[in-house]
Specification:
It contains 13 helices and 13 strands. It is of the alpha/beta class. The strands form 3 sheets. Strands 1-7-6-5-4-2-3 form a 7-stranded mixed β-sheet, sandwiched between helices. Strands 10-11-13-12 form a 4-stranded antiparallel β-sheet. Helix 3 runs antiparallel to helix 10. The longest helix is centred in the last third of the chain and has 38 residues.
């Protein structure tokens, strides 16, 4: 079978049916500056063997996260994923199942999602969780849209510690529906700034903890101020492993929690796919995006599962949908659930404690390097340091010496003016030898 089976006549007939004169007519809404002119600079064709060789040569230029000391985080974290997770998700009944469009027939799929929801609700300290979303950033954007529906207000305050990519995603979604976003300037710790920005027009406050600089924040005072003004509190968590050690968002007054679940069960995977977590107070359930699976009994009293809520456009009228972009990341959420089941509460707390202990070792090591200043006052497994040189150049120099030494903040937010700030992370896979090598190589680069 040919990969491009349509002939010129086939395409002409299709265009005629939809009333378009040419394929270019389909892209009239795309600005000319955003369109590619001419063909891509690639060979017109090549044999399979030649393509494999070319791609293998390109891949060989990469430095894999597991091949060198690795200290990158900033929203995507390297944790140990047990081999059992990969083994189970590759069973055919899991690997080939996806969206439950005929939900009650797919009892196994619904049970997996129900257990996933239960785990997310327990982790976040919230009443109810949905059956997963794309990732943490789009979950955050959806949370803002949900808060605007609930409060009937059109203003969202984004805290200074919110990951710039999350802020950008949220701003894009909010702008499309007429919601104003107030994005406060980047700061390592800015509780007072957030409270001061809340007013009578605020629909919600978005606060990340640990924030993009690694600062662990007790959101309680922010929540009290927001609730006093009639606004909702959205707590964002990019490092879900932190919930094994830190106070959960629900106990700090969160109304909605949007999180990235990649750290549990899912490897870095070159940036995805990941799994968005979304949880809320029970009274807000009807405004949640996505799907929600429930438990029931059949006519004979046997345990069963149903699709309790499905507020997306495939299932109901588009004008009634609470979201048009959400999905359930089925296989990724299954991996999350398997890993959580293997760990249990005790195991999760133990892994989280190891993360923090290793981060403290890393902090002590880097603090002893001349010219390095630790900026983050309270952290879980990630913190920010100020260097005497631009962080991007230091990272490149470290990479040449076989150490992936973190993420320059300038890569996340080039306009923030924090070119000398480096974000570094230690997890349970970080060894003492890794830390010592990072310390010595950093001292060399900065000398």
């Amino acid at each position: 079978m040919r990969y491009l089976p349509l002939s010129a006549d086939d395409r002409a007939q299709m265009l005629d049916v939809i009333g378009a004169k040419s394929i270019d007519d389909l892209f009239v809404d795309v600005p000319a500056a955003a369109r590619r002119s001419g063909t891509v600079d690639l060979p017109a064709h090549a044999g399979e063997l030649e393509v494999e060789r070319e791609l293998a040569a390109l891949a060989a230029k990469n430095t894999a996260a597991g091949s060198v000391p690795f200290f990158c985080g900033a929203g995507a974290y390297k944790h140990h994923v047990p081999a059992t997770v990969d083994h189970i998700i590759q069973r055919s009944e899991f690997l080939t199942s996806y969206t439950p469009y005929q939900p009650e027939i797919a009892q196994g799929t619904l049970q997996v999602l129900f257990e996933f929801q239960t785990q997310v609700a327990n982790l976040t300290g919230m009443d109810v969780a949905n059956a997963s979303m794309y990732d943490g950033s789009t979950a955050t954007g959806e949370a803002v849209l949900m808060a605007a529906r609930v409060t009937r207000r059109k203003k969202a305050v984004l805290s200074p510690g919110l990951h710039p990519h999350y802020a950008g995603t949220t701003e894009t979604l909010a702008h499309a529906v007429g919601i104003e976003t107030v994005t406060l300037g980047a700061k390592v710790d800015a509780e007072a700034d957030v409270i001061a920005a809340i007013d009578a027009d605020t629909a919600c406050v978005v606060v990340q903890t640990p924030n993009v600089f690694g600062t662990a924040t007790d959101v309680t005072k922010i929540a009290e101020a927001a609730h006093a003004a009639g606004a909702l509190v959205i707590v964002v968590v990019t490092e879900v492993m932190s919930l094994g050690l830190l106070k959960d968002p629900g106990s700090m007054g969160a109304d909605i929690v949007a999180a990235e679940g990649q750290s549990i069960g899912n490897a870095l995977n070159f940036g995805g796919p990941y799994v968005g977590l979304f949880a809320a107070k029970e009274k807000l359930t009807r405004q949640m995006p996505g799907r929600l699976c429930g438990e029931t009994v059949d006519a004979e009293g046997r345990r069963g599962f149903v699709l309790t809520l499905s507020t997306r456009e495939q299932h109901i009228r588009r004008d009634k949908a609470t979201s048009n972009i959400c999905t359930n990341s089925g296989l990724c959420s299954l991996a999350f659930t398997i890993h959580m089941s293997l760990l249990g509460e005790k195991g999760l707390r133990q892994v989280a404690a190891i993360n923090h202990a290793n981060a403290r070792k890393l902090k002590d090591a880097l603090s002893s390097v001349k010219g390095v200043e630790v900026l983050t006052p309270r952290f879980f497994n990630e913190f920010a340091v100020r260097l005497p040189k631009p962080a991007a150049g230091v990272v490149e120099a470290l990479a040449k010496k076989g150490v992936l030494g973190g993420v320059p903040f300038s890569r996340l937010d080039p306009k923030a003016g924090l070119d000398d700030v480096l974000l570094v992370t230690a997890t349970e896979v970080t060894t003492d030898a890794d830390i010592n090598e990072f310390k010595s190589k950093l001292a060399e680069v900065l000398s």
